[in-house]
Fold this sequence. Notes:
Layout (H helix, E strand, L loop, with lengths): L7 H4 L14 E4 L12 H9 L4 E2 L2 E4 L5 E3 L22 E5 L2 E5 L7 H4 L13 H4 L10 H15 L4 E2 L2 E2 L2 H6 L4 H10 L2 H5 L2 E5 L3 H10 L5 E6 L8 H5 L6 H4 L2 H7 L5 E3 L2 H4 L14 H7 L3 E7 L21 H12 L5 E4 L2 H9 L1
Parallel strand pairs: 1-2, 1-13, 2-7, 3-8, 9-10, 10-11, 11-12, 12-13
Antiparallel strand pairs: 3-4, 5-6
Helix pairs in contact: 2-5, 15-16
Organism: Pseudoduganella lutea
InterPro entries: GP_PDE_dom (IPR030395), PLC-like_Pdiesterase_TIM-brl (IPR017946)
GO molecular function, one term: glycerophosphodiester phosphodiesterase activity
Amino acid sequence: MAATAAGLTGSLLLPAAQAAKPARPLVIAHRGASALRPEHTLAAYAKAIADGADFIEPDLVSTKDGVPVARHEAFLSETTDVAKRPEFASRHVRKTIDGVTHDGWFVEDFTLAELKTLRTIERIPQSRPGSARYDGMFQVPTLEEVIDFLAAQSATVGRTIGLIPELKHSTYFARLGLPLEERVIATLAAHEYTRRAPVEIQSFEVANLRMLREKLGKRANLRLVQLVGVGPVKPSDVAATGGSLTYADMATPAGLRAIAEYADVFAPPTRALIPLKKDGRLDTPTALAADARAAGLRLVTWTFRPENRFLAADFRDGAGDDARNEAGSIAEMRRYLALGLDGFFTDDPALGVKALAG
Length: 358
C-alpha cells in the first residue's frame, strides 16, 4: 500500500470541515443488497447500487496475513463453502469471539490466497432461496477490491456512492496482532476515490472510534458512526478492559453527549427507537431519536429486512415467516422515517428507495 496510517491525516480526506447534512435520509445497503444476493459479495454491492443505494456497507475482518476482507464476522461457516472443502477440514475449531462461541472455521486462520479459493453462500437460504441460487459463484472480496469496484460503479452510474465500512471484532483482532484500524485507514488512504467520496467508519466498540477522531479530526468526507446494541451489554472493548459502560448507558442523554465528543452519527437498532409490544406490534416511540438530535448527532438505524419474520406484526401479510413482503417492509420503514432519520440500513435498497418516495 502506498499510504500508511501515519500519513493518513494528510492523504485520506478532504480539508477539515463539517460534512453537509443529507437532503434526505440515506439508503444504506446492509451487506449489499443482501436480501437478493449472498451478502458481502461484489454482486450484492452491484445490485444495491443499481437499486439506488446511497452507501454500501462492507463489514471488515482480517485474514491471517493481515488483509481486510468483507465478511460480517470472523466465522466463515455460514457464508462460505468452507465446510465442504476437505483440504481445510483440520482447521475446524471452537472459538469464542466477543462473547459468542462457534464451532467451525474462522477468517484469521486463512491467508488471503486460501480464502480466495472459497466461494460464498447465502446465510439464510430458507428465507432467501433466490439469493441461494447464487451459492458457489462469488469470492470473498478484499476492501481494496470493494473500493476499486465502487469507483468503477460510481463512474458507470454517474453518481457518487458512499462507503460505510464497519470494523468488526477490533479488540479481538488487535490481540491476535492483526489490528484492523491501521490497515483499513491505510487502504482508504491509498485510493483516490475514498479520498474524496463520503466515508463513514462504524464500530460497536468505543476506543477505536475515539482513536480515529483524535488522529483524523473533523474531515469533510469522513464521519464516524457509533453503533450500539440494547440493554446492559457492554461494548467488546469495554468488557475486555473491565469497564462498566453499557449500551443502555450510551443511549441516555448524558451518554449521547459523550458520544458526540468523538462520533458524528448514532446508530441504534430499530426497536430501540420504536419498541415492540408483547403482541409484536409497534409500541410508542422512545425519546431516543429526540435525545440523539439534542446531543447534536445524526441518527441512523439498522436493519430493515423484507421477510415477514423480521417485520413488526403490524406489517406481516400472513403468507408465512419466510415469505417476502415488500409492501409490509415499505410501510414499516415509513413508520420509522417519521422519526426524522438521517439514514437507515436495509437488506433491500430498492424498497428503501420506494419508502422514501412517499
